[in-house]
Amino acid sequence: MVVFLLVVIGAAVAVGMLMHISRKSVEVYRGRQCMGKLWRREFPDSPKEDIRQFLWMFASSFAIPRRQALLLRPDDELLAIYRARYPVGGWPDALEFETLANDLDRIHDLSLRSIWHDRLSMGELFAALGEQGRKGLS
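and the corresponding structure tokens:
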């Protein structure tokens, strides 16, 4: 009985520490100011509404509150954003990449697999949508 109690307490402490680490990691993005100007500088020919729609779609896929979507930068890497949410490998996730891939295919007729590499950035993904004519953004 004592061993069981120690295991339960140890597991609770471990989960609590992981959740604390995860919150701290995601705060890197929460501590930022709005990155809208940076997006406009990087993509001067793209309407603000297209950029917002893209960021809202991404935020929705990653369960990021819509009001925090403009905290993401064009040079933020998708895997870095994912790893900020899940700093310890092997834990179940909320199928963020699967949701993103589905949304890109359904809304923009773009295969995430066709452009994927481990350092894919938000800006590269947005630019790839531009190459597809940004179907569905406007």
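(Above: one complete record from the training split.) The chain is about 60% helix and 0% strand.
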